[in-house]
Specification:
Elements: H1 3-11, H2 18-47, H3 51-73, H4 78-99, H5 102-105, H6 110-124, H7 126-145, H8 147-151, H9 159-202, H10 205-213, E1 219-232, H11 235-239, H12 244-264, E2 268-273, E3 276-281, H13 290-307, E4 318-332, E5 338-342, H14 344-354, E6 361-364, H15 365-371, E7 375-379, E8 383-385, E9 389-391, E10 393-399
Parallel strand pairs: 4-6
Antiparallel strand pairs: 1-3, 1-4, 2-3, 4-5, 6-10, 7-10, 8-9
Helix pairs in contact: 1-2, 2-3, 2-6, 2-9, 3-4, 4-6, 4-7, 6-7, 6-9, 12-13
């Protein structure tokens, strides 16, 4: 485990989100980096007889170190400690600039002043940023007003010493900018990954890619696809004696099993509404075996339900309905995207489910024609389907032996 990871592990509190953890880690790292930079500059100042400013550098280095140690030891003190340090940093910068000859001559002490607004943005967000910008602007005005006095104060300093101070100050500024850039890049990548994962949870991968690359409406017609609906039977008496958390946990166990099977057969889960589950095969990537793959899924779903342990002696039962044919698929919504299906094929698939029986897979004649060479099916009496009249349907039994 690296130093940064150790710091993050130490300063993070149980309720902290990712952003807060990153801010605390970055702030603590900057505190120790500032202490190190100041400690490197301080001996050179003492060696060249600049005792007054050397003691200021030493005290600021010590305060930076103590601030970092305080945050490590007491993570809850982070907000107060870092805010105080940022205010002290700009005061230190102002004093150093006056000592070195004012706003124009002492500009190499400026990185410490920049720490206030930069640190405010990175470590605390908008609220403290406006305060810090006000303090920063007031400090600059004060330095400009004190410029005539400051010009007369600077001691004689060797060129090599000024060069080392200037170099280290610029190095510190580069370090702060680098740390800030890495932090921002990490945050951007983290949120981009999270957004992509959320999008992929809602949409098929190929559809998500199209949505990111274009603002055009996504609507595709498919000449052949298969749709499955699965709906729980008797949920009211089944859940009557269960606590809400138990109900959700049980449903999650069942639907997670369904999800794994959908992934196994390379199909597309469309949505879950309550205790209703919808899957499509043959889209968004067309496939010739769309009906066969859906049939295998349906049989495995019913088999999987029998393998899930009962609760209070009860077991979930589902009706499953399947239909095949042409349909339209597309994305609707602006803030909450949804990949959905439309067409008569979808409506009939829903009717197959609602007119079926618990623990059985009810298929339309269209699906039967696609499956009859590979699966055993049992014909049932014609049923009256709303809007369709009488329809010839079948129950799926299983793959043909041999």
């Amino acid at each position: 485990m690296g130093i940064i990871e150790r710091i993050e592990q130490r300063v993070a509190l149980p309720g902290d989100g990712e952003t807060e953890r990153s801010r605390k880690t970055l702030a603590t790292t900057v505190l120790f980096a500032a202490s190190l930079a100041l400690s490197i500059q301080t001996p050179a100042l003492f060696f060249n007889g600049l005792t007054t400013i050397a003691w200021q550098y030493a005290l600021f280095a010590l305060s930076s170190l103590l601030a970092g140690l305080l945050v490590l030891a007491f993570p809850r003190s982070y907000g107060v400690v870092v805010r105080i340090f940022l205010i002290v940093s700009i005061l230190f910068s102002a004093v150093a600039q006056v000592y070195f000859g004012g706003y124009t001559s002492g500009v190499y002490a400026m990185p410490w002043a920049i720490m206030l607004p930069l640190g405010a943005v990175l470590f605390f967000g908008a609220g403290f940023t406006f305060v810090s910008l006000g303090v920063f602007a007031a400090t600059l005005v004060a330095l400009i007003l004190l410029e005539p006095l400051a010009i007369a104060l600077p001691p004689q300093i060797e060129t090599a010493v000024l060069l080392s101070i200037n170099t280290l100050s610029l190095a510190l500024l580069c370090l702060m900018v680098a740390l800030a850039s890495l932090y921002l890049l990490r945050q951007v990548e983290r949120y981009r990954t999270r957004a992509n994962n959320l999008l992929l949870n809602m949409l098929p991968e190929s559809i998500a890619s199209r949505l990111k690359d274009s603002s055009e409406t996504i609507a595709d017609a498919y000449g052949e696809a298969t749709v499955l609906f699965a709906d729980m039977v008797g949920s009211t008496p089944l859940f009557a004696d269960l606590e809400p958390a138990e109900i959700v946990d049980w449903l999650n166990e069942v639907f997670s099993m369904f999800d794994r099977l959908v992934d196994k057969y390379g199909l597309e889960k469309i949505r879950t509404i309550g205790d209703n589950y919808m899957v499509a095969s043959g889209l968004p990537v067309p496939r010739d075996d769309h009906a066969q793959a859906m049939a295998l899924l349906a049989l495995d779903m019913l088999r999987g339900l029998q393998e899930i342990p009962t609760r209070q002696g009860k077991r979930m039962a589902f009706r499953v309905g399947i239909n095949s044919g042409p349909l339209v698929a597309g994305v609707i919504g602006e803030s909450k995207y949804q990949y959905d299906l439309w067409g008569d094929t979808v409506n009939i698939a829903s009717r197959m489910e609602s007119h079926g029986e618990a623990g059985r897979v009810h298929i339309s004649k269209a699906t039967y024609e696609l499956l009859k060479e590979d699966f055993d099916c049992m014909s049932r009496e014609k049923i009256a389907v709303k809007g369709k009249g009488e329809m010839e349907t079948y129950y799926l039994v299983g793959p043909k032996s041999g």
